[in-house]
Every structure is written in structure tokens, then in C-alpha cells.
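Lecture 7, part 2: worked example. A protein chain together with calcium ion.
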Amino acid sequence: MGFALTFKGSTFSLQITGSGKMKKIFGIGFSIFMMLSVFLITSVVAGPVIFDNGLPDYLNGYASDIHTTSKVADDFILLEGSNTIADIHWWGIYGTAATNTPPDIDDFTIRFYITNPDTGEPAADYLEEILVGNNVNREGTGEFISKVHDYEVFSYWVDIDPLVLDADTQYWLTIINDTTSDSDDYWFWATSSYETGNGLWRYADEPWQGTNSEFAFQLTAVPEPSTLLLLGTGLIGLAGFRRKLRN
Ligand SMILES: [Ca+2]
Ligand SMILES: [Ca+2]
Ligand SMILES: [Ca+2]
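Predicted complex, written out as C-alpha cells:
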């Protein structure tokens, strides 16, 4: 088995010499490489994570639902140059002690708050509100929190109009679902894999309470077009190469 790089017209081509079996093995390897390349592009399209508050720990969640009149807030700080949010990812479960029958429809509201310097808690009024409703990507993770029932943990993500925030500044994120129409379940924001944290929970307009937990969410940036173009060009080249391999 060998490789020969030739230059013909305006294009380079790579020719493989050797037995059919070797070519087949190389072809399979190449297909895997192509699949990985496509995956890489998908990752770039989603945008790089600019704040990572951890993945779910599959242990707990706090109700953040109009139906329970309660909400969860967690904080984040963005770095200079990575302070534009284009995409929000989070995790949660549905249930009560009696049931676990997730509704088909979600009605999420996402809000951003600055910090009240006097209390260190979210300011009274939000800075930005995003009425996501049911326009959210939702996917079962196949992983469960086992307390009373096996509550499946769902993953959610939504693209937003790019939101530019000040770098090196603390903000608070609230994610609230409204499952009022589903009488037997509430929505809970899943706790993250960080052991302790400063996530807050409040009932109605009562004072915020510390939870000693962090909540599972990630903020991602706008994809970088130059990186995309580079990868895209590479793929076109590879596609051409693959055609040559078949001939
Ligand atoms: Ca936090
Ligand atoms: Ca239900
Ligand atoms: Ca409900």
C-alpha cells in the first residue's frame, strides 16, 4: 500500500496504490474521518461555550415554574471578547411526588438581570426578557433522577438574538417554565455537577433563598464564520478526493 501525490491541471490528487482490501480498509477509515469532520462543523455551528455552569448531576432539581409560583436564578460572568450570547443550553425534569408525565408543550421565559449591589442578588427588574414559549429544542437525555420516580432529565437549547453583555460583570439568569396546563407535573431546573454554589430559589415574591447548588446551563457564542469557511473548504476538497478514490 502506498500513496502518490500528483499534480494535474490545477488540482493535486492523491492516489492510493495497493490491494483492494487495503483500499477498502482505507475507505472505511476515511468514511469515519468524514463523519467526524461533519460532527466538527456541527459543533462550530452551535458556537463555542463562553460560560459553562456544568452539566446535570442527575441528583436534584429546583422548581422554576409559574405553576408552582417559584423560580431559580443562577449567576455568570463573561470574559472580554466572549461577551456575546447567541445560544442557551439548560437541563431539567418534570414531576411531582405523585407523577412523572412530562407535558408535550413547554412555555419557557428566560430573563437576564444585573446584580443589585446592595444585596448581591438579582436586581428587582430584569435587563432582558426572552419569551421562548415552546420554541425550544428539547431532547430526553435517557438519564434519570431517581427520587420517587425515575424522572428523565431533558436537555434544552434555544438560539437567541445575539445579546451583548459587559465583560467581567456578574449577571443572573432565570429560566422559568409554565406548566400550568399540565395539572400533575411541575418543571424543575436540574442541579449541575458542581457540588456547592450560589444558585438562588424563591417562592412567589418572598426573599431569595440560597440553595448551595449550581444549576445546569451553558451559554454559547455566535459561530465564527472564518472557522466554518475553512472547515467547509477542507470538506469540499475531501469530497473531491473521495470521488477520486471510488474511480
Ligand atoms: Ca452560580
Ligand atoms: Ca403531566
Ligand atoms: Ca404543571
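The radius of gyration is 24 Å. Residues 23 and 29 are 10 Å apart (CA to CA). Keep this in mind for problem set question 3.
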